[in-house]
């Protein structure tokens, strides 16, 4: 597979440390609120990537954290803990909030056909691992204590800005959220590994540590959880583009300092979902969720298709008009599949050419919209219906749009919408029309055709004879 790598900023062949195996890590949600459909764009694209790697035959081990502590309102380690904010908002404990929104996140994922990663680990379950990592960083001279907190010393690194495209403006990320710079830091880019002192001292969850009672920084979570379950050599690390700096930059700094060697060679970032006012974010107040789309009558899988229609490395603007266009496209696709004859055996030799095209399309930097085009090409292909259905089911292992199930359901509604009586009448009319045509009685044949049309009956000549269905 050819995949763009933010580290090095170019597309190249995706390689792994061990042949045939992928150690993949995904930054999980901060569970202080529902996920918005922007967050879910990132999880959908990561899901397609994982499924495509499996489709290509890789054995994938995918790990994801759940951020239930330490993610402050600003990514620059300042501001109130997001979890605490959520708890105050809903007058619940942090753990109640975490439990509720973790479940809500996986319910949304299920509706969007996003597979649950092989390992899901909440940060609050890994405190000993974080402490061990911070201790090692202190021992190795990469960290220092100041004002009760432990910081990573970025001046100890040869190169801190590994992704190479940060500017002074990016560094102002803390200031943007109207919180002042932390005066304890030796360097502007240093970040907190362990907090014991914060101006928000009502933090609910705290643990004993060699540096006093406190809680971990956000970045250390992902490094420690990934090393715990993925080992010292990671193949692929994913997240939304806002994670690249400072979160992933800090993860790389502390993981490589801790391990003493290169950690993860490939970084995959999904560009943002935008709304009419810019980047979709939870702090904006009103935000779009899967439940909101459902309440407006949208099938969550239509939103999945909406995401697949564009490339993950381009920002995507959400509007209801464009989602409505996807509804039309999805329904048309499903009804074309429903019209296929599901009898007979697929011709797997003939299918191979189409599988190769699909692999080439999606394998070129996860071009999912071209992957969808491959589906339409199959529908037009000079192969049997059984082969078409075989190919559609095969591609859907990656696209996960429930195409076969939706087509079956549609066919069943159509058949069950016709009573036995009506069905017998239609069969009789078709037989009468066939007879009329055999007798070259075109007037009668045309009259019957018009009558069938008026009833919404669509006729199709197949090698097995005339098939009919109702299209209302
Ligand atoms: P959070 O729950 O805030 O930790 O974010 C979960 C994931 O969603 C992270 O990978 C973010 O980078 C990603 N994300 C946040 N906002 C957006 C957005 N508007 N569009 C796409 N991904 C996003
Ligand atoms: Zn992370």
Summarize the structure.
With 472 residues, this protein is of the alpha/beta class. The chain has helices at 37-55, 82-90, 94-111, 127-139, 168-171, 173-176, 218-230, 244-259, 290-295, 300-308, 320-338, 348-362, 368-380, 385-399, 403-416, 420-438, 442-454; strands at 2-5, 10-13, 21-26, 59-66, 72-74, 78-81, 119-122, 143-146, 149-152, 191-195, 215-216, 236-240, 267-270, 273-275, 278-279, 316-317, 457-462, 465-470. The chain folds into three domains: 2-270, 3-Layer(aba) Sandwich (Rossmann fold); 302-413, Cysteine-tRNA ligase, C-terminal anti-codon recognition domain (Four Helix Bundle (Hemerythrin (Met), subunit A)); 418-470, no CATH class.
Structure description:
- This protein has a 5-stranded parallel sheet, with helices on both faces.
- It starts with a strand and ends with a strand.
- It is built from 17 helices and 18 strands.
- α7 (218-230) crosses α8 (244-259), α13 runs antiparallel to α14 (385-399) and α16 (420-438) runs antiparallel to α17 (442-454).
- It has 3 domains: 2-270, HUPs (Rossmann fold); 302-413, Up-down Bundle (Four Helix Bundle (Hemerythrin (Met), subunit A)); 418-470, no CATH class.
- The radius of gyration is 28 Å and the shape is elongated.
- The protein is α/β, with parallel strands linked by helices and 472 residues long.
- Helices cover 46% and strands 16% of the residues.
């Amino acid at each position: 597979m050819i995949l763009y790598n933010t580290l090095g900023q170019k597309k190249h062949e995706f390689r792994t440390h061990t042949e045939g195996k992928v150690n993949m890590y995904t930054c999980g949600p901060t569970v202080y609120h529902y996920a918005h459909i922007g967050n879910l764009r990132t999880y959908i694209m990561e899901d397609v990537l994982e499924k495509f790697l499996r489709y290509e035959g890789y054995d994938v081990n995918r790990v994801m954290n759940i951020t239930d502590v330490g993610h402050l309102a600003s990514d620059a380690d300042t501001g109130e803990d997001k979890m605490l904010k959520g708890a105050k908002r809903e007058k619940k404990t942090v753990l109640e909030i975490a439990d509720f929104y973790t479940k809500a996140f996986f319910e949304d994922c299920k509706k969007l056909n996003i597979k649950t990663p092989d390992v899901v680990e909440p940060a609050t379950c890994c405190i000993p691992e974080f402490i061990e990592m911070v201790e090692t960083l202190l021992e190795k001279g990469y960290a220092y204590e100041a004002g009760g907190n432990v910081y990573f010393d970025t001046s100890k690194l040869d190169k801190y800005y590994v992704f190479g495209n940060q500017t002074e403006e990016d560094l102002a990320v803390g200031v943007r959220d109207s919180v002042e710079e932390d005066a304890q830091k030796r360097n502007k880019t240093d970040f907190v590994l362990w907090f014991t002192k914060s101006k928000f001292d009502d933090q609910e969850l705290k643990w004993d540590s060699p540096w006093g009672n406190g809680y971990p920084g956000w970045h250390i979570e992902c490094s420690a959880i990934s090393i715990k379950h993925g080992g010292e050599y990671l193949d692929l690390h994913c997240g939304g583009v806002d994670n690249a700096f400072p979160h992933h930059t800090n993860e790389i700094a502390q993981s490589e300092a801790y391990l003493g060697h290169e950690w993860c060679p490939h970084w995959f970032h999904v560009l943002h979902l935008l709304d009419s006012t810019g980047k979709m974010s939870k702090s904006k107040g009103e935000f779009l969720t899967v439940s909101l789309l459902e309440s407006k009558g949208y099938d969550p899988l239509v939103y999945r298709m909406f995401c697949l229609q564009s490339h993950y490395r381009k920002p995507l603007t959400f509007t209801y008009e464009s989602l409505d266009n996807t509804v039309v496209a999805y329904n048309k696709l499903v009804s074309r599949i429903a019209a296929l004859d599901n009898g007979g055996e697929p011709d797997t030799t003939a299918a191979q050419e189409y599988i190769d095209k699909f692999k080439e399309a999606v394998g070129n930097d996860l071009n999912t919209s071209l992957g969808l085009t491959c589906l339409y090409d199959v529908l037009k292909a000079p192969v049997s219906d059984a082969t078409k259905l075989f190919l559609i089911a095969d591609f859907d292992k990656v696209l996960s749009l429930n195409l076969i199930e939706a087509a079956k359901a549609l066919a069943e509604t159509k058949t069950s919408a016709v009573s036995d009586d009506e069905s017998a009448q239609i069969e009789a009319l078709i037989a009468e029309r066939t007879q009329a045509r055999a007798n070259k009685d075109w007037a009668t044949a045309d009259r019957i055709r018009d009558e069938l049309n008026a009833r919404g009956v669509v006729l199709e000549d197949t090698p097995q004879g005339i098939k009919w269905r109702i299209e209302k």
